[in-house]
């Protein structure tokens, strides 16, 4: 069943309305009809089973049939700090990270990032990335829409994460062989988790050392080298399965 987010002000007693792009998507793309059912959520634990009463150009009017509390979020805030990859890889990373339960995604400019974004491109990407996050949240029936932040540089990431309880930075040249399972066992409910993933060329050694000095745990993700678009999703998958157990 299709799932949409609405502003709380769009719900009045047993009636609700979906407006704008989502309304057009319902009528023009999904081609839903009056009498069909869908689910709406206001960004919390409660969701509403609705029946479509009327479809207009930019509005879909609904009757609420059921209200149910359904908590689908992980018990911890997880923020993915992803060094900007080339081409459209960031779109894929955002979509899958949202499906895996991340709370926020922060694009990062590290020394080996080759992507160059001016102010116009940054705004365009920012809007696109948040649209992708919303779509992925609806598809995976999240209770919230994870936020995609504007890009930060490396030093600002260290400042941003200074109060995080758990901080992880996978590094392919890590010699101490830290283990992800040991890292996971230290996590308690409601503690913030930061996952910092490098670009295609990897982190510079000086960056990893600076991150460790700032409280990050450096570890390898097995014996194989993972691409930047794979590494973060591997970590997030492990965290999701551990916290959902």
TrEMBL record:
<dbReference type="GO" id="GO:0005737">
    <property type="term" value="C:cytoplasm"/>
</dbReference>
<protein>
    <recommendedName>
        <fullName>Ribosomal RNA small subunit methyltransferase E</fullName>
        <ecNumber>2.1.1.193</ecNumber>
    </recommendedName>
</protein>
<keyword id="KW-0808">Transferase</keyword>
<dbReference type="GO" id="GO:0070042">
    <property type="term" value="F:rRNA (uridine-N3-)-methyltransferase activity"/>
</dbReference>
<comment type="function">
    <text>Specifically methylates the N3 position of the uracil ring of uridine 1498 (m3U1498) in 16S rRNA. Acts on the fully assembled 30S ribosomal subunit.</text>
</comment>
<dbReference type="GO" id="GO:0070475">
    <property type="term" value="P:rRNA base methylation"/>
</dbReference>
<keyword id="KW-0698">rRNA processing</keyword>
<comment type="similarity">
    <text>Belongs to the RNA methyltransferase RsmE family.</text>
</comment>
<dbReference type="InterPro" id="IPR029028">
    <property type="entry name" value="Alpha/beta_knot_MTases"/>
</dbReference>
<feature type="domain" description="Ribosomal RNA small subunit methyltransferase E PUA-like">
    <location>
        <begin position="18"/>
        <end position="64"/>
    </location>
</feature>
<keyword id="KW-0489">Methyltransferase</keyword>
<dbReference type="Pfam" id="PF04452">
    <property type="entry name" value="Methyltrans_RNA"/>
</dbReference>
<dbReference type="InterPro" id="IPR046886">
    <property type="entry name" value="RsmE_MTase_dom"/>
</dbReference>
<feature type="domain" description="Ribosomal RNA small subunit methyltransferase E methyltransferase">
    <location>
        <begin position="73"/>
        <end position="240"/>
    </location>
</feature>
<dbReference type="InterPro" id="IPR015947">
    <property type="entry name" value="PUA-like_sf"/>
</dbReference>
<dbReference type="Pfam" id="PF20260">
    <property type="entry name" value="PUA_4"/>
</dbReference>
<dbReference type="InterPro" id="IPR029026">
    <property type="entry name" value="tRNA_m1G_MTases_N"/>
</dbReference>
<keyword id="KW-0949">S-adenosyl-L-methionine</keyword>
<keyword id="KW-0963">Cytoplasm</keyword>
<dbReference type="InterPro" id="IPR046887">
    <property type="entry name" value="RsmE_PUA-like"/>
</dbReference>
<dbReference type="InterPro" id="IPR006700">
    <property type="entry name" value="RsmE"/>
</dbReference>
